[in-house]
Amino acid sequence: MDTTNSNKIILSGMSLDELTAFTDSIGESKYKAKQIHNWIYLKSVSDISQMTDISKSTRDKMSDIAVVTDVKIKNRQVSSDGTIKYLLQFSDGNCVETVLMRFDNRANLTACVSSQVGCACNCKFCATAKLGFIRNLTPREIIEQVLTIQRDTGLKVTNIVFMGQGEPLLNLDNVLSAIDIFNKDFVIGIRRLTVSTCGIIPQIKKLAQMDFQPTLAISLHAPEHSLRASLMPIENKYNLDNLMQTLKDYVGDTGRRVTIEYTLIKGFNDTVDCAKKLAKLLIGLKANINLIIYNPNDKDDFEKPSKDSIQKFKYVLEQSGKKVTIRLERGSDIDAACGQLSNKYR
Ligand code: SF4
Prior knowledge:
This protein has 346 residues and is of the alpha/beta class. Helices cover 34% and strands 19% of the residues. The protein has 2 domains: 9-67, DNA polymerase, domain 1; 72-345, TIM Barrel (Alpha-Beta Barrel). It has helices spanning 16-25, 30-41, 56-65, 139-153, 172-184, 201-208, 225-231, 240-254, 272-281, 307-319, 340-345; strands at residues 9-10, 66-67, 72-78, 84-89, 95-102, 109-112, 116-118, 133-136, 159-162, 193-197, 215-219, 258-264, 287-293, 324-326. Iron/sulfur cluster is lined by residues 119, 121-123, 126, 128-129, 165-167, 198, 338.
């Protein structure tokens, strides 16, 4: 059970069973737990006083020992395309970034959540890597990111992607606990939950053995060992050959298609030659490809690719029979790339 600095119980992130134990401990019925559950997950309130179908005396009793949340919005940036980026602060002072993305022609509202404060993986294109690894997030801290978005906007998040700060598979147990709550308590379908990894092979194998799997996305970003190693040090531990075999086994074990994420960086990995090598690498793997246009941050030397190179790259991959999408750019007028806002604050 999470508590605030002043030792009050934090209700957000609790399952119905945990809320039932809480109402039981204050001499209230199981039905009250259901009401609290609805207020937290479906109506997204931030304060016990807002739970208006619960009697004032019960709310007062609850408020003496509990709060809904202790997470603070430290910064909030709104893009002209509707993307909202939050910098959220937890009670120990640490901050993470969370982004709400919306797309004009779709009803989906996607939250991009963080799984760790900082990250140990040190990918060269990533602003979060510059923070280093600080700590794992608890399941509640992951869940609170989505709740904060819902409280702030009054909207219901429909899709969640673990593509914010941190490597989710290096905090797998907590990420899976949060996924369980997203699935059962937020009622978000498992296929609408996506975990993105830079390729932690043992954890991908572990995920394959579970009863259910969220959608798995792999940050590939280069089609050959040396190029990938120069961008992503994790390649020296879990190399492309082993990763590809693990992914084929994963698809075989689970029947689930994987998503390959490939960030196009000008002059580095956006050539036709790279596209051909990528197409060859992915032969035999049931995968969709998501091309991401590099979003420059002010602390590195990488640049955005040209429209021409993006189209040529996509064309080569499509010729190989793969389904290819180009991720729509969101929030390019704010610090929307993972880690940019945190870096600014540090
Ligand atoms: S891209 Fe992801 S895995 Fe790589 S350093 Fe950044 S947060 Fe970590």
